[in-house]
Amino acid sequence: MKNQTNSGTPTVTPDVTNQIATLPMTSTSDERIIENDKLTIDLAKSKVETAIASVNAAKSALEAAEMTYRYMVLQLFNKYDLTSQDSITNEGVIQRGVNQ
């Protein structure tokens, strides 16, 4: 760009467009991982979900087993006319009046 001074002689000034910093171009398309890596991460996520489902199933099975055990003990207490003061040992021996 050329400017003229009051004396009428032209002077050259630097071009403004050369002073503007170049900004990085932003991509309009999404950057993606390769398909093999995507499949690997999906498989790992699936294994976590399967493990969680297995844990939940095991918790349910444990709860059902505990309820069955308590029900069987209750049935035995009714069958042998036991009270809350009585107990049955692991060997099957009835102990009356021990829980006082």
Write up this protein.
The protein has 100 residues and is mainly alpha-helical. The protein has a domain at 34-100. The protein is 45% helix and 10% strand. The chain has one helix at 35-79, and strands spanning 2-4, 10-12, 87-88, 94-95. The strands form two sheets. Strands 1-2 form a two-stranded antiparallel ribbon. A two-stranded antiparallel sheet has the order 3-4. Strand 1 (2-4) and strand 2 form a beta hairpin. The longest helix is centred in the middle third of the chain and has 45 residues, at 35-79. The radius of gyration is 42 Å and the shape is rod-shaped. The model has no long low-confidence stretch (mean pLDDT 84).
List keywords for this structure.
single chain, about 100 residues, mainly alpha, two-stranded antiparallel ribbon, two-stranded antiparallel sheet, 1 helix, rod-shaped
List the strand order in the largest sheet.
1-2
**Cα radius of gyration in angstroms:** 42 Å
Q: Tell how many strands the DSSP assignment holds.
A: 4
Percent range for β-strand residues: 5-15%
**Mean pLDDT, rounded to whole units?**
84
Count of alpha/pi helices: 1
Low-confidence stretches: none
Overall, the morphology is rod-shaped
Along the chain, the helix and strand elements come as: EEHEE
| CA(first)-CA(last) distance | 107 Å
Structural class: mainly alpha
Percentage of residues assigned to helices: 40-55%
